[in-house]
Fold:
Amino acid sequence: MVELLYSSGMRLAELVSLDVYDLDFQDASLRVTGKGRKERLLPIGRKAMDALERWLACRDKLARPDEMAVFVSQRGRRISARSVQLRLARWGITKAVIAGYTRTVCGTRLPVICWPPVVI
Structure:
């Protein structure tokens, strides 16, 4: 979860609304619906992809058959934003850190690192 937030720069609301079919392991990307219901593609770093693959193996044992959320609780349902905030706080990661730092890093460094420039 943390690796994905850092790697892609997604918002907390985008993380908890992420469904399994939004992931594209071949293109190393995921599709999110952000503010204003705008859909966008985000790159996924190698470490985040590895972590996601490990999580999805565990997720299948937890998730209810009709649940499409990537991140589920022990009850098998989609986790809430508050649940993620509490979990991150236990690890010493505050909302301000996630909202500010990861979005800034991804807005400045990630396009250069992960998305090669297109020659027109």
User: Anything to note?
Assistant: Residues 115-120 have pLDDT under 50 and may be disordered. The two ends are 36 Å apart (CA to CA). Strands lie at 23-24, 29-33, 39-43. Helices lie at 2-8, 12-16, 46-62, 81-90, 95-108, 110-114.
